[in-house]
Amino acid sequence: MIEEPKSLRIGPEVDRRPTAEQIAAFRGVPTGFVVDAMFGAGAMCATISPLGAGNARVAGPALTADNRPSDILATLGCLRYLKSGDVLIGAAQGWQGCAAAGDRVAGMAKNAGAAAFVTDGPMRDYDGILEVGLPCWCTGLNPGSPYGTGPGQIGTRVVVGGQTVETGDMIVADRDGVVVVPFAKIDDVAARLGAIRDMEMELDAEVRKGLVLPDAIAEVLDSDKTEVM
């Protein structure tokens, strides 16, 4: 017989966070730059997108809630553990049959200091969420209500949008989507952001001047790497 599980389990690293300096290195940085700095890694799938037409940009550490499909007890339990500037990650195992949060959860998360909410499920109470003002990334809208009975886990490893997320990982989100920077790679990725920004600005300037074909692509077209059939 399966043992009756605890309603909630709290992970040992629920308080792990990057330093203020590490967080500041990602503020205002486009998600595309962060992905480039990780050599193409880190982006959640495109089904997770910003709710509403705003232009919110968020960079902050993850606090993870691992929920069963149709349940949000872990998300609600995170309200005790949120620190100012956290991005609450409400994992729903991709369940689309009901909302993974609504305006009241968003409001309480904002009251607790959350900078944003990210989930791989839909949300509900669109107008209320906009009124609350907490930036949210989700898979869309569903008016169905979730349960709050568990079991669930707080501060443990989750998979959201094809990316593994652990508490303390850096989350960077904007109109383009959501990117996860693993805790152990924060300094390395931050160190590459300056070079990425310089390259992007240089290419932008060339495009504004009329660039049609980058030199690197022209070299491939004119070399034996290209075959005319």
Automatic annotation (TrEMBL):
Classification via Pfam families: RraA-like (PF03737)
Upper classification of the organism: Bacteria, Pseudomonadati, Pseudomonadota, Alphaproteobacteria, Rhodobacterales
Keywords: Magnesium, Metal-binding
Gene3D superfamilies found in the cross-reference section: Ribonuclease E inhibitor RraA/RraA-like
Presence of keyword Amino-acid biosynthesis: no
Residues given in the record as Mg(2+) binding sites: R124, D125
Cofactor(s), names only, from the UniProt record: Mg(2+); a divalent metal cation
UniProt protein name: Putative 4-hydroxy-4-methyl-2-oxoglutarate aldolase
Sequence positions that bind substrate: G102, D103, R104, V105
Coiled coil (residue ranges): none
GO MF term set: metal ion binding
